[in-house]
Amino acid sequence: MITAERKPLAEIIDYIDNCRRILLVGCNECVTVCAAGGRKEVAMLASAMQMDFMKRGKTVDIREMTLERQCEPEYVEELAPFIDQADAVVSMACGCGVQEVVRRFRGKRVYPAVNTSFMGAAERPGVWAERCHGCGNCLLGLTGGICPIARCSKRLMNGPCGGSSKGKCEVSTEIDCVWQLIWDRLKELGIEDRYEEIILAKDWRTERGGGPRKIVREDLAQ
Amino acid sequence: MITDSVLEKVFAAGHIAVTGECGPPRGAMPEVVKEKAEKLRGYVDAVNVTDNQTAMVRMSSFAASLFLQQMDMPPVMQMVCRDRNRLAMQADIIGAYAHGINTLLCLSGDHPHFGDHPMAAGVFDLDSIQLIQTVKRMRDEGKFQGGADIKGPPKMFIGAAANPFADPFELRVARLAKKVRAGVDFIQTQCIYNMDKFEQWMKGVRERELHKEVYIMAGVTPMKSVGAARYMKNKVPGMDVPDHLVERMAKTPKEKQAQEGIDICVETIQRLLSIEGVAGIHIMAIEWESAVPEIVERSGLYPRPQV
Asked: How far is A146 from chain B (nearest CA, A)?
């Protein structure tokens, strides 16, 4: 999933301080799962904003909505009946959702309420960790199913640097050395010889090197 | 001989090679480079010039290497994958070679986290093994990494690092094998203090006969004080300083610790030279270049051969 964290309240208020009517829009997908921008977080942020305005002797009218998927036009359309009654939209979706609202409602100011972080998974309740970098040319088949691009601090493709110590990365003991994980996994599978196959210089065009990316499926595109 | 590198000539003639290190200054101070290098003159065959070591901005390795070249002291130009993409790296390799710099050390580079620009993006377009492949292809096939022909290919003698003390230990011989397969000509190791572990690694190297395919230079760093010993033991990632050496330094009166550090270094080199497969010694006397002449002389490595 795409993970995100809510922005500090002061930054959000700063965007909308001169607005009186806010449409606060969450998303029912990834940001709900990582507890950053789902229905519950929308309600909490709405209360916090109300209180902040009240403390300063101001009022604000906040309409709360949470869309099924803010990155898809058909769901974003649900905002249409309410959009004119808002001075600004505050989106709690990831950056994809924010921009889909922007694309649909050209004349409306739209502000993000979360910092979109990474593609990851829940390691345990309340802890999400990066798993995929979206490089566009998956290496997992060569690295025991564990990604060095997303999970090595130097995205080294051919093994651990000299800073790997007791299974941890030189950058922080909070970070697992992914090459230790890969090596352990290859050994478990009895294929540690595979480590010595050199992974060639990566073609970053499938990542960001080729500019903004787009997938076009001719069979589905209209 | 595949290059004009003095280092290669020393190896090829069957001598134990000796290299030193010069860390460029954090400012436009050519005299600092020259002073450091001058202290090493005559005692080493070539001088490593570090590339933004510990992720701190310094005079570029290329520029500082040029000063050494002009002083008639062969530089080993270090190049890290952290700061530049493959265009910039290949451009510098051609440029350096055009100025007569013919020995290159290919490194991943310390993470920006450790330096004075922790907010910088780490490039890591290539990793060190892919850089070795790139430099070899430039030299042997006259091709850029992207595949186009090079007019006037750079003939670099290609080096890389190895750290036998990092984890996972059992992978470390395989990692060397991978660098050999990528086309590396010589290796300089991390500073060696844990001799038992180094010997264990070298045993693995010999079992695979890798020492016959690549010249392995054992790295040493003299410790100037017990503080330095403790710092390296506790703070430097990938360093392995055994307790008995820290204790030996701690037991030595403060004013004699520097001499003790040199003694330990000389003893280490003497033991390293008895290990089959060690083809040279790389002395990293960081900000202590003046220690190098004594270390080289007492280790029986002086005078340096004329090749």
From this structure: 16
Q: What is the dihedral of CA A75, A80, A81, A85, to 10 degrees?
A: 130
Dmax (CA) for chain A in angstroms is: 69
Pick from A150, A217, A214, A152: which is nearest to A179 by CA? A152
Q: In which domain, by residue range, is B195 found?
A: 6-298
Distance (Å, whole) CA B107 – CA B160: 6
Task: Please tell me which residue of chain B has the smallest CA distance to A167.
Answer: B167
Is residue A9 domain-shared with residue A103, that is, in the same domain?
yes
The dihedral region occupied by A152, where left means phi > 0, alpha psi between -120 and 50, and beta the remainder, is: beta
Q: Please indicate, yes or no, whether residues A14 and A112 belong to a single structural domain of this protein.
A: yes
Query: DSSP character for B256?
Result: G
pLDDT tens across B30-71, in order?
A: 999 999 999 999 999 999 999 999 999 999 999 999 999 999
Contact B110, B130 (CB under 8 A): no
Q: Are A25 and A74 part of one and the same domain?
A: yes
Q: Which residue do the tokens 């451009």 mark?
A: B91
User: Do B113 and A179 count as a contact with CB atoms less than 8 A apart?
Assistant: no
ipTM for the complex shown: 0.95
Same domain, A108 and A15: yes
Measured between beta carbons, the chain A residues lying within 8 angstroms of B162 are 162
- pLDDT band for position B238 (50/70/90)? confident
Q: Which of chain B's residues have a Cβ under 8 Å away from the Cβ of A158? A: 127-130, 175, 178
Residue A96 lies in a domain: yes
B304 part of a folded domain: no
Q: Does the residue B305 lie in any domain?
A: no
Q: Give the structural domain span for A175.
A: 136-198
Which residues of A, range 49-68, sit inside 8 Å of B by Cβ?
none
Tally of domains within chain A: 2
The count of structural domains within chain B is 1
B275 touches B211 (CB < 8 A): no
Cα B105 to Cα A189: distance, rounded to the nearest angstrom: 34
Specify the CATH number for the domain of residue B254.
3.20.20.220
Please check whether residue B234 is in contact with residue B204, taking contact to mean a CB–CB distance below 8 angstroms: no
For strands A2-6 and A114-124, give the pairing: antiparallel
